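We close this part of the discussion by returning to an individual protein. Part of our work consisted of pairing the sequence of a single chain with a tokenised description of its backbone. No coordinates are needed to read the tokens, only the vocabulary itself. The amino acid sequence and the backbone structure tokens for this protein are reproduced below:
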Amino acid sequence: MDRKSIIIVGGGLAGLSAGCYARMNGYDVQIFEHAAIPGGVCTSWKTNDYLIDGCIHWLLGHRPGNSVYTIYKDLGIVDANRFIDAKSYINFVDARTGNRFELTADYEKVKDRLIAISPEDKSTIEGFLQACRVMAELQVPTGESSKSVLDKLAGLWQKGRMLKYFFKYNLPLNEYVKRIKNRWLRDIIVNLFLQDMTTLFSMLMLGYLFNNQLGMVEGGSIRFVLPIEKKFKKLGGKIAYNATVEKILVENDAAAGVKLAGGPVHKSDIVISAADLHSTLFDMLGGKYTGGRFEHMFKNWKMFSPLLLVSFGVRGDIKRYPPVNVFFLKEPFKIGNTETDRLLVRDYSYDKVMNPGDKTVIQAEIETEYDYWMGLRKNEEIYYREKDNAARKVLDKLEEFYPGIKAKVEMIDVATPYTFLRYTRNYMGAFEGWLMTGETIKMPVPKTLDGLKNFYLAGQWVEPGGGVPTAVASGRRVVKKICYDDKKDFVTQD
């Protein structure tokens, strides 16, 4: 029997992962990637000799003993990278009051410090932190089971765990903090992650932190990606860059290959889309196989807000901060129509592989408006002028926390929602797809489409909450499903 062929749309983490596992299981695989390099959203880029990271800030499961670590091992990531334990999650600095709090991996110290901040919230703090520890037991699903997250939670409840936490904390952070009396404590908790995300997600992150399963990748995101590409090629896979898929070919309601922009057609037995979900459904498939479920998602589900990433290359000594910080500003400022009173700032002083010597990248991440920046793109001169204005405003605010930084900046890089769209095609600039909310955590996104055979979906858009572990696990999971449909054993050996 001839080997089946698979075409994968998208060479991000999920596409590369799916490609590797498909080759391990004997399929001929061709990946078509829109950009010039692998990785999709998981990338880094150089500007004036400074390496700017656009993705991995925390890596879940970077140590043995976690389910996703085996995937990192399978894909060649572990042997090619050095992982650094995250000793600090977020450092909070309030310029309005002088308050400071660093959320570290020391569970007992964190608990004692939070209670010292707000003795009146003692029972709430203890309950929250205990739930974090329990949530750490919920490992990233790898495809070993078809159970949903909700099924897994229910299973843990049967052991006397978990489900009570699910019902108590499955609400957005900005709703949960209403039960907290102390304002400073509220500011800390509501900024643990995105405010519209379910509180359970932040608990999962902190549980991994306290369990020493939260890390960082030395050298940046592209260094994490390249070993997967290398593994895929070593396994005999083929990948084409600057190759934009315009249409997924369908014959007799079965996926039959792809048509690239410019005309070339490539046939295959199976197609996996690990690309943007909206482009896949409404452009590549012409909206024919969406159904009510997907229409409901795009109408009602919340997506990750588009981002403005403002990065500064700094040469010389500056004040040092932990890797991730939330700076509360004395006075808010506006970019476009969005006013912000805080800055999420990443300080890459710790990573001298990324920027050796006396070079450092300081990066501010700001939620912004997709329509505003896309409107500016109609006039290139105005667009670039507003990028410069945004960088100036951010640098003015950073001067308060990094005295003297203005004089030491020798590189400025601004990535807008248009930048994300241009390089990754992510719908509305949503860099990680759907938020993990009370609804999305209970409703798995279908990995196949009703009425369309030989077609599968993978990637962040079909795994609400997104992130690196879920992306690589999604690639593994989809190949296991294909093997099941083909009535063959799934293997993970070269």
